[in-house]
Amino acid sequence: xxxxxxxxxxxxxxxxxxxxQRTHPMSERIRNALFNSLGSExxxxxxxxxxxxxxxxxxxxxxxGAEQVTFIERDRIAQRIIEKNIATLGVQESAKLVKAxxxxxIGSTAETxxxxxxxxxxxxxxxxxxxxxxxxxxxxxxMVLSYPGSSEMPTANGVVVVDNRSYGTAALAFxxxxxx
Length: 180
Fold this sequence. Notes:
Blueprint: E1 2-4, E2 14-16, H1 28-38, E3 46-50, H2 56-63, E4 68-73, H3 76-89, E5 95-99, H4 102-108, E6 113-118, H5 127-133, E7 137-148, E8 159-167, E9 170-177
Parallel strand pairs: 3-4, 3-6, 4-5, 6-7
Antiparallel strand pairs: 1-2, 7-9, 8-9
């Protein structure tokens, strides 16, 4: 299944889907709503795309002006798709793929990010890992979690839910790290 980059520098370009049933691509409608809600907040930012699948969220962020995106993906098939999509768009200079699980990455980095996209598999939401991602947010930074709308979303001290939107069976929670 191919995915279209919606807008920005690479708008209209087609990239490959994740190529595996173990990931679930975010629909174009939800991706469009997500990025429209972010507006210009993405420009010049350092972004983390966790449970990256095809890399569609991070690549959309680069298309809309993000300075740098780090993709975290443990599935080997999806990793190859991300590498191919990075090459297709020619964004090797501003994209980095980490071939590891989200929990392994969290435990091995001291980097912080302006925006984090977390789109865990709906059959295994890994909310303990998602909650650990909050520690990688810069002060006043944003994390967007895609999760099954029927489940409860995680919360943690130091972050506030600033928006929660439902799209049928999927939902997006927007977290903002409190300024330290």
